[in-house]
Amino acid sequence: MNVNKAILVGRLTRDPDIRTTQTGQTVATIGIATNHHWSDKAGQKQEKTEFHTIVLWGRLAEIAGQYLTKGMEAYFEGRLQTRSFVGKDGVERKTTEIVGESMQIGSRPQGGGQGGGGYAPRQNDYSQPPATGGSSAAPRPAASRPAPAAIEEEIPTINLDDEREDVRIEDVPF
After folding, report:
1. What distance in Å separates the CA atoms of residue 165 and residue 74, rounded to the nearest whole number?
2. Among residues 110, 126, 127, 140, which one has the fewest Cβ atoms lying within 10 Å of its Cβ?
């Protein structure tokens, strides 16, 4: 059994770069940063930032171009893919990217920016099934996903202040 799965949650380092291929397919290149926190042997808190490149295709790329901006938090699922290219200096290079198959839009950056400080969207999940066949097969957008603001979802909650008895497991919404 083989598994090639990447899951990343981070903040965009720049606005998505949206392009269209010669065949008319939309592609988005997104840069995100993720942080890792730990304590060293001396007890000092340490942090390391990693930078990742995510490539989205088709309708998922269009949605990313429409809704994502620098500083936003986002969740991506996909697969790792390494490709080779020749740089401007004529040297062959390799890069490993995440080919995104699913995306969830998170919060906007704190303190100013677009939309003000009160912007808190509900989590939108955009997915597309993986491409089948050879490398020329383009991913297809998922037909069952709603448009970004098409459905308002009510999330059940439990208010413990109103409860007189113990909370029952049947009452927990997850």
Report:
1. 39
2. 110
Cβ(148)–Cβ(124) below 8 Å: yes
Of 98-102, 117-121, 128-132, 143-147, which has the strongest mean pLDDT? 98-102
Q: Report in angstroms the alpha-carbon separations of 50 from 9, 37, 73.
A: 11, 11, 15
What integer pLDDT is reported at residue 35 of this predicted model?
Answer: 94
The full set of domains in the chain, from first to last, is 6-171 (2.40.50.140)
Residues 87 and 42: beta-carbon distance below 8 Å:
no
Among residues 3, 4, 6, 8, the alpha carbon closest in space to that of 106 is found at 8
